[in-house]
Amino acid sequence: MRKRGPRLAEARRAARLRGCGARRGSGAVTDWTRARKAPPAAGSRRTVRNYELEESDTLEESDELARDEAMSDGETSFDWLLCWLAPFQLGVPGELCRNDGRAYLRALLSRAPAGWALRMADASGKLPDGVLFGSLNLLSAWDECLAVQAALNASRGPQSSARGFSGRLCAAAVVPDASSAGLRAVVGECQARDDAPVLDGGDWAAVAFLTLTGLVVLGCTVVNVAATHEERARALLVYRGAPLPPGWRTVCVRAFSLYRNVRRLLSVQTAPDNIGCLHGLRFISMTWVILGHTYIVDFLLLPLSNMGVLPEVTRPLPFQAIMNAPPAVDMFLLLSGAMFSYSLMNAQRAGRRIGVREVLSTYLHRYLRLTPLYAVVVWLTATLRRHIGRGSFTALFFGMFGVTGCRRYWRCNPLYINNLYPNGETVCIDQAWYVGLDFQMFVVAPLLVLPFLWNRHAGAAWLTLWGVVSAIIPGVITYVKHLPPTLLNLNVHANDRQTQRDFTLLVYNAPWSPASPYIIGLGLGLLLDGARTGRLRRRLSTPLNLLLWVLAAAVALLVVYGMHAYNREPSRAWMPAVAVAYAALHRPAWALACGWVVLACATGHGGPVNSLLSQPSWAPLGRLTSGAYLTSMQLQVSFATQARVPFAFTHTLFVFWFLAHLVVNVALAACAGEFKATTLHKDQTHSFKVMVVKGQMANNLLA
Fold this sequence. Notes:
mainly alpha; 3 domains; 28 helices; globular; disordered C terminus
């Protein structure tokens, strides 16, 4: 989970407006939520009849009325109502906009109001109930607004749109303006019923790529299925059996075969040297990430009608597991580091040479395994994602959540340096900061583990040294910069712009801060290898085993719930000593607690926990975590921004949405897993001799 910085701090306090505006038949926009700049000038005491704008009134006479309004020194509530209904004052830019506004008022305020004008007024956003309890979303009626068809003629509106206009819905958000200490309006694109998506070159390229990929997968699947059920399979392109090495055509067909890859993806079988509990831990951590993102994204983007209840919702202790969910990502780092060192020891025991050439080959293989799927997700986020679905806030928030960043700064992602940039418009895939961080840790991992192969004692000391350094650095930065101990989304002292920027850039996303779980994971992998080879055969007594489990549980609970007081009392300032201690110790403490769970399950000390986590059904779910992680927030933001009516928050509603997000994310990850399966595998090519790939370990390396 990632802190979005000032953008979300503003969005959280935003009051959304929607108006049912007017659109000419030719496509020109009359957007009254953006056009109206001022209410009727002070002093206006006109009656309702003054505003009726009889049919005999000319536009020049109407302008005279407007000038009189501007010179008057009072105002009435009815003046404000008319300003809200339609833009017709002199301060409104665009003569056509003012003329259409007058025509709309004439049709609405006449003795026999036109039906289209009544529907347009009815569909426009209005002050809702419960404003003092946080209901700040002035939502219009989406479908009713877009269904409006204004009928005008030359006699009733000689200088208005000749053929009338149709309804067009525009969304805006009023957010704090840091430059003026006031408020500013952020207006999104207006939408009409007959709007068709306008595809640019990148969009068409993405469509062509997806079409070509689908055709290739379909063709390879047909060939593979036909060969599987054909007695003379050797006459076809697909290789079956092992008498002869497969050629490149066989490799390509098998790589893109949906039949073969889905069977492998959903198989519950694992390699003999697989550590059974890892798949369960990975999927549970992924579930925790999606749960936390569901609450945070929906809190920030959904038009909730009872925001006043949120302090009561977020104050209880159990809710801290959602507010403080970053340890779920630290679990990924722990397991990723453990699998690297564990696989490296397997390669050494198999007699493979481990040198500079093999390390560089490992880097290349890792890059080729991660980047294709990652690049496709970035590409689709920058192109087709903004055309999927229509909602009140789709255009307004898509630019803030990925589209703009992916279109302008996509190069940072395939270079795996996106976590080194501050939050803002540079963000492409919000949660992908972890992907860059994990790749950076993978690059330095050989430098930390290889000394252990040459001298075990010196290597252990070297690894311990860097683990201590990685814990000290975030504590020092927290002390010098006066930063919060962790993500405190509800604390007022942690939500100013500079504090959020420094915390995100220097602590949360920086590679030196989350490095401690990865380094501890490297040590865990060495211990797992020792347990597998028999160097760690000592059987723990039942009291000692129970004591270690209790200590691990206590430490994990302290990490998750230790900062609850600062979220429960938003005005409470943290003590510097507490902030430094928590910032320095909570990641290594969490990694040690979870590392004990893995080690205990792998050495026969896990009991019922190991029985639960090692169920074969976790294996296919564990393989889907990487794809689910890459697509999780895009799905959640797309869902939230398509809301057309306000929602009242309840835990039941959010939990149902979380379960829906989880199921759909797993399905998307299965589709992404089909594409990932087409990347290099050890059994598909002999061009890359990679020391860390052995059986199922290739899947475990990607956390």
